[in-house]
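[Automated response] Your request has been received and processed.

Submitted sequence:
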Amino acid sequence: MEQVARFPNTPVQFTERRSTERRSTEGHGTEGEGTEGLHWNIQALYGAVEEGLGAALRSAPGLCSVGIDSWAVDYALLRGGRMLGVPYHYRDARSARGVELVHAVADGAELFARNGLQHLDFNTVFQLAAERESGFLDLADRLLLLPDLLAYWLTGWARTEATNASTTGLLSVADRTWDTELMERLGYPPGLFADLVDPGERIGPLTAGVAGRIGADRDRVQVTAVGSHDTASAVAAVPFETPDAAYISSGTWSLVGLELDAPVLTAQARAANFTNEGGVDGRVRFLRNVSGLWLLSESVRTWRDADRRPGTDGGGADLQELLDEAEKVEREVPVFDAADERFVPPGDMPARIRDWCEERGVRPPGSRAEVVRSILESLAAAYARTIDTAEELSGRKARTVHVVGGGSQNALLCRLTARRTGRRVVAGPVEATAIGNLLVQARAAGLVSPEATLEDLRTIVRASFPVTVYEP
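Generated structure:
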């Protein structure tokens, strides 16, 4: 596997008017300063995708397939094939209002029975309620999740990939089809939602325009559906040797859970806020979203911003140096609740951790190294609780914990996870999402036997990528 292009993903904020703000008496715009909306810079991301594909073709002229994965739940609205507005970021505050609106129609227990999902304020089902209240939903005739939007722009074919659809709250957990009855009750026209495709199905060839811009043979290059929810692709590449293992897909979020053949829809699973999301080859990702390295990256960003202010000496916010110093911390640091809602929006995480501790009469971490150690201890403790609960709810034992993604490179986090879970931790591969994406494409293209099972694909992963083992 060769990386040929990489690009930043920086959300944008700009002032906008919410539906609750009054129109001015003159009819020219709205009163007040409006609200800061948080959005994805999707046009810049698409431009980077085309540039990356051009680089890939120059590196590998025989390229035959492209697969797209991204984060879940977020979407674009279209009318007549044109995008309306700029897609919202799931951390935008409007989702809280959406929860109120949806729960007035279907409460949490009913939603879990229908979709099997843990409650997250930003699930698509709640975002769309806020969209509908604003009147914006009425303008749209198509909704596409973001990886499906990119595939649409590349091919002209509008499809929704099933693993990502399972995160919307609008897919039936019973038969993995769109829940049109729930859509109608909530006022979401079922016709907005595109036909479903499974990982491994072909979406279509590149358009003539795209092929011309990137130098591709459009008759050769196909866009193929993969586990377009990045965690679905990552879990497909977890190098399980036996089924008695848990996984942690560790990045901005930590997705902690088990791979099962059937969903767990008990009241206890709902109370524990577990989710049943779709996986590659019909598997179920039984997991809970746990806050992840977002806490660390936001802390480092805060410190770097502070170090750039006049009168400061700069430095002191190099991540590797902070991790090395955190390893040496001897004072006991607080273990805080990484799932607290205050840690979801962007902002000053060290200050929020301090506030959480002071509210409970706990000594907050002092130095930056102590803050880093506190974050990693808290994440490891959350992983241990989640794995124990997953075992209890599913009846499946987890004797080994596989950590994939960026967090697998964080040796201190992996050691703390082994210590707090009391289980052997197998770390790697780092680029599990890309590997799972590629293997699903390879099977669809016949480069791997079309009859290969998910276990066969994982055998390839084990043979191709080294791992690091941490004993408890």
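Summary generated for your ticket: The CA atoms of residues 17 and 34 lie 5 Å apart. The mean pLDDT is 94.
If you did not submit this request, please reply to this message.
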